[in-house]
Amino acid sequence: MKILFVSGNAPAKFNFGEPNSYPYYLIKELARRHELYVLYFTANKRLTPEIINQDLLEAGVSQHQELRSTARGGLLRYGIYLAATFLMKLLLMLRIKPPYSLIPIPFSAYKKRPPATLLEVVKTYKPDLAIFFPQLLQFAVKEVTAAGVPVSLLFTDSGALHFTRLMEVRGPGAPDRKMNYQQLIRFQKLEKNYSQVDARYFFVGHKDKEVFDSNSGQENHSFFIPHHLYSYSSQLKNWGQVDQPLNIVFTGGGHTIYTGEEADHIAGQIAASKKLQTSAARFYFLG
Predict the structure, then answer these.
(1) Which DSSP letter does residue 131 get?
(2) DSSP readout, 222-280?
């Protein structure tokens, strides 16, 4: 099968401040069985073309290309992106957590018009299937489905659910509540806009799929795929009576980092919900 894989982040073995390894290892596994053409956006200066090329070659992919912006007002859009990037770097230098909207998924990935390269590759490569990651590439998904190519979208997580949970955890007085609310509305709108897009949607969480289905009405076209770190053991345990410390691991991707009071808060909530003392458990936070 000929598969076109389109990623909003350059695929690489390791994360460079964004989710690079997630698409990389999916691509590597697909390349074992199928012919692949990889297209990707990147604005990450730490990821050089040499690194990307070498990693993709090791994954068994020889056909790949970076996507660049070609939309109207491209110069103005690029200027806005540079200003946002500068602001993000300044906030990081001042040790201030930047707003989610400044997290460096390439600005071109948010455009309403796909770059000409994408449609040219679809026309010449003639893929049997196109796979997209992440959900923000809606503009490109619509164009490729309109070209008659079956599309699978690795939605992975519901952004609407993520920010709903943040609103609940942070509380009404949180300084970032306004930003979280804006992102909640943004992702609700994004998911609703998928209601008319003929694609297949894949999630790694039951609840994420449920929220997406509620927003998009795509319950017949969305699927839950268990995350490889999930445990589905049916054995019941009395967590309050353990003979040795429990090892509890939190994993995050891209910009997700647990630090300071936030990590303590999460650990405390789990200990309380399971009637544990924090000394009876070891918590590991991997960002």
Answers:
(1) E
(2) EEE---TT---------TTS-SS-EEEEEE--TT----HHHHHHHHHHHHHHTT--GGG
Give the sign of the dihedral formed by CA 103, CA 105, CA 111, CA 112: negative
Q: How confident is residue 262, by pLDDT bands cut at 50, 70 and 90? A: low
**Helix/strand/coil for 174:** coil
Phi, psi for residue 91 in degrees, rounded to 5: -65, -40
3-class SS shares of the chain: helix, strand, coil, % to 5: 45, 15, 40
- pLDDT band at 101; cut points 50, 70, 90: low
pTM: 0.71
Q: Minimum mean pLDDT among 124-128, 162-166, 240-244, 268-272: which range?
A: 240-244
Tell which residue, 185, 182, 192, has the closest CA to residue 138.
192
> pLDDT digits over 11-48, tens only?
999 888 788 888 999 999 999 999 999 999 887 888 89
What are the start-end ranges of the E strands in the chain? Answer: 2-7, 35-40, 63-66, 129-133, 151-156, 200-203, 222-224, 246-251, 281-286
Cα(231)–Cα(267) distance, integer angstroms: 19
Report d(CA 145, CA 269) in Å as an integer: 44
Q: Is 141 helix (H, G, I), strand (E, B) or coil?
A: helix
